[in-house]
Design a protein that fits this description.
73% of the residues lie in helices and 0% in strands. By secondary structure, the chain is mainly alpha-helical.
Length: 96
Amino acid sequence: MVLHRVATAADRGVFTELLAARCALDCALAAEMLTTSVERLIRMAGTSAMAEGNALQRAWRDVRSAATHGTLRVSTKAAVYAEREWENVERGQSHG
């Protein structure tokens, strides 16, 4: 659902600074949710899932690696989104 909003915005092809910031935040949230899900799978699978060559271990490593990228940090993206939203409020353009 989070990425559906991003895809819909991309399909429309019209981005404001606020919408771009919201989409970036949505992507960061999706990465965080994916990381949490894969970590739960690892915990349920037990220590054998961490064996070298195990597909789940490889997925866990890849997801964690991607999610630590600076462009997917929720705190950073949330701050930018809040800043853009505040700018709209100050201009009287808040969408509520």
